[in-house]
Amino acid sequence: MTTPSMPQAGATLSGNKALQIEEPLIFEQDAAGRTAVDLPAVPQHQERLGGLKRKQAVGLPGLSEPQVVRHYTKLSQKNFAIDMNVYPLGSCTMKHNPRLNEKVARLPGIADLHPLQPVSTVQGALALIDRLAHWLKTLTNMPAVAMSPAAGAHGELCGIMTIRAALLAKGDARKRILVPESAHGTNPATAAACGYEVDPVPADDRGRVDLAAFKAKLGPDVAGTMITNPNTCGLFENDIIDIADAIHGVGGYFYCDGANFNAIVGRVRPGDLGVDAMHINLHKTFSTPHGGGGPGAGPVVLSAALAPYAPLPYVTHGPNGFDLKEQDDGGTAFGRLKGFHGQMGMFTRALSYILSHGSDGLRQASGDAVLNANYILAGLKETLTPAFSGTCMHEALFNDDFLQGTDVTTLDFAKAMIDEGYHPMTMYFPLVVHGALLMEPTETESKDGLDRYVEVVKGLAERAKAGDTAYFEGAPYHTPRRRLDETLAARQPILKWKPPVEKQAAE
Amino acid sequence: MSDLRYTKDHEWLRAEGDIVTVGITPYAQEQLGDVVYVELPEVGRKVEQGKEMAVVESVKAASEVYAPVSGEVVEVNSALTDAPATVNEDALGKGWFVKLKLADPGQLTGLMDEAAYKALCDSEH
Amino acid sequence: MRYLPLTEADRRVMLAKIGVPSIDSLYADVPSKALLKAPIADLPDHQGEIEVERQMQAFANQNLGTASCPSFLGAGAYRHHVPATVDYLIQRGEFLTSYTPYQPEVTQGTLQYLFEFQTQVALLTGMDVANASMYDGATSTCEAVQMANRITRRKKAVVSGGLHPHYHEVIATLAKFTGFEIVSPQPAPQGGEDLMAMVDKDTSCIVVQYPDVFGQVRDYTKLAEAAHAAGALLIVAVTEIVSLGLLTPPGDMGADIVTAEGQSLGNPLGFGGPYVGLFATRDKYLRQMPGRLAGQTVDAEGRRGWVLTLSTREQHIRREKATSNICTNSGLCALAFTIHLSLLGEAGLRQLAELNHAAASRLADRLSAIDGVDLQTPQFFNEFTLKLSKPAAKVVEELAQRRILGGVPVSRLWPGRPELENLLLVAATETVTDDDMAALETALKEVLR
Fold first, then answer.
1. Contact criterion met (CB < 8 Å) for B58 and C312
2. B interface mutation test: which of A487, A492, A494 has the most B CBs within 10 A?
3. ipTM
4. Are residues C332 and C417 in the same domain?
5. What's the whole-model pTM score?
6. Residue from A432, A184, A269, A179 nearest C30 by CA
């Protein structure tokens, strides 16, 4: 039996392709007066708007509930997600998001608490924050934690401000922060935002901080250093204790970027390495959902030297149970970083994740994450070119040497991964590796799933080496949209929908 | 062509009297890729040799453009704001960035000529 | 462990392939004195869903939730009804478990809703352009001040005494570390502050709140004109975004940057977070705006599509020269916001806003008729300030004992100021019933007696 050959791609009448359905903007589905929310009639009342009542319509479209449900359902189907397949995006930790955590975050008595209720009515909420804080302090062997930072970068800001506050208290704010060249971009941005000069430290040929170069840059004007460990190359900084001793030797502080804590949780406690401050991305290590780019949460654990300078607010143990310290009263807290008390919804999810894993499970999870990454490294090291020799931590880093002479770029290679049903690995980061491909499988991938992934990557590498450049340059082919013109978007920015010209003229 | 001078940061400069025209080199625009935006200084601003004077952006990168000599900005190429692609199309001509009133003619002698600059670009490959 | 797919047999095979004897041996780079040989002993081991849920429920049981009693709390966070559709849609895995849309071919869903979100925010605020969200209203406002400093190359912000003190403190914290100055009059619920008197040639911006933290609605048109004449920008912060369904938008008053807390649409109170910061400005300041932006473009086949754009302003490219160190936005909260607003539409938002105003206005009538209660703010949206005959914190505590969350004492926001001690902030949204109002009225009479 023969089947008819497939017509040209995109040749359907509707533009739809089976399960891929085109979807206009909500603004293009408007009917005046229509709404998806039935609200009661407005009762009689005295208007007290001081003459500032809105005179013109906002311009929002009117849709019914089924239209809205379809709109967002169709949009969702244009996204790749952890729930679908391996999402090996290095440095981002795309691990399974347990739904229990979503359920408990929505419990009445948690989701419906107002941040400014009397503390006598929120003792359970404060106890929850305190319990999570206890876990974070114990897992890191650090005596204090600032819970309020809203994300990793916000945690960095908190940490560097704490360091600056501690130095200012000694009358010596200092000038420079040492930051390795392989650092995530938020590190230098944070140091600069706190008024520090960023002094880059080179990496050695093993992908670690060059200890000699680091020591050579030390001096009495160095406020501290920001070092990611395990680092952005997926390697443990084996000189870490020497680095900590050296920075302490000049009176500076050691900020550890804890973005990769998921590789060592339950196995290494940063407090044992000489760390003074470290943020923990709850959305990475403790699997609160990434949500298409946030919200995150970035609590910062602090050493005894820095703890007095932690920002407001924080939970205390008072005579009548838990209390919330919201004001300074002439204390040493450096200030406030955000409205209210922090990302409670993320705290709830993270604690649920932590209680589910327990001490033994967290240790197993970090071990499996490292095992999975090394399994990928072992599976691909003959076909791709590892950036460094030896084993890795939770992510495997390759350079683009294996593509040399093929005219296929790292970007093209990644786009071809999409057609195979995988999210691309992280590309061109860290910057210290040419054409970097950074793969982080996480502990929630099965061996079978990784075997299939490795086979696909190997197959694509062989296809690239065989000279099929045009295939890669055109990829992806099977996505709702092919490659998008980023130059056009940047040269002529269109950042919001505008009514069509005819409609504007008719109004 | 021989009237052009170059910096190690890939700016070019053409002097006419005490007015110098400054832009980025064809090599620089090629390294950047499609230019999407150019941020120019205001007329009247005093710039210092080697210090940031403008910013040129592609989709994936933003680069500072440094003043090759000290002086006062007397004119900027505001056409680039609406047509940044001009930098890619005609880097040495219509893609110029600013005109400076030269503060110290002596600074011109420290810049590279075409041969020296070409050698620099070759070494960066 | 239900979340870990590897079996012991898998691990053995994988270790053999790698060529190491154990997982522990993969940690050879860790200094041996810092490497733990066993799970941390004084923490409990793993547990099933039943046990975890029971413990989390126990935390919840110790709290008095706003949904379980009459509640009149505002001051920057508001309880609204969130349609069931919102929470269903944001929990679709394709939204919930997706990353920042750096790969546009497989994130058109996220990018399109961000583009729609930006449009909605620009429309609501009356501004030209909005970003794809920030952490919350306070951090958004702080970013706006930094942006004004960059644009004007000046280093002094004049901050209204009517700005939420958390917002003020976040700005002050950054000011302290980055070296700019803040000047501010005392908080005054009845107004009368002369902000222009504090403006000088170093002033980058004036920051006001609309409605202000006491609930009062003020026209800032003349303030905008005066600020511009002095070369400064006007930043307007909105903590109750539903108000813009009924009020003249700040953009129409001449604001240069509008920041807002978007929690009221789609997002639960959640004890203060995560929330969603809104940020909008004029086209001419686009390049100085912090945060992510989704933009329209075309794909290789000429079809309309979306990408993140103008990202050269951001930290991953500009590093220490970025406009902000922010990496994440508040994606899922922005999604909840935009879905709720799509459900409401023009007619629904207007109706919702009118219901809020009606509830507050009627409640103000009832409460201000009580002996010992004076309304301090004659013009408001859904929140107003009362002066009581007793310290408000004590009154609120006594109301709480009667299972009524009666409002936010102003002393919670500004402690230790005798002139503010008797002030109570009271909010009423569409969730407040006549019975709730009657309960508060009765209880307040008793407490003040």
1. yes
2. A487
3. 0.97
4. no
5. 0.95
6. A269
